[in-house]
Amino acid sequence: MSITKIIRKIQIISLIVSLVVLAVSFGLSYIPAPVTLEYMNNEIVSHSWHDFYELIVETILFIQLVLSFALIIANIVNKISNKVKICGSVSFTVLLVVFSYVTSGFSLVFVEGFWSDSDYNPQYYISDT
Length: 129
What we know:
By secondary structure, the chain is mostly helical. It has four helices and two strands, in the order αββααα. Helices cover about 70% and strands about 10% of the residues. The chain has a two-stranded antiparallel ribbon.
């Protein structure tokens, strides 16, 4: 199998993963997220399953980013060794990176919302200390 076909398959898989993450995020946006509060480092910190999901989305995005940069480098090396124009396939990979970032952003917005609770509904707790 040629390097061009491998690059194209990885690009398609990356595109599909981005779309699946977006669809899953849209589905998860309707699930309530019970919040637990914890006192850490002199402040009250809220936790929910959103924190874990955000970490998963950011990890997937990081893997896609590293893989995309590796694809760009492999694609450029392949095109230079075959003395073929570089622009088309490299620009598709760059657009794929941008698309991955946009879909990840929308994924996080679907689950987290545009604002957190503390942005529009701050909570204050009275301490006896």
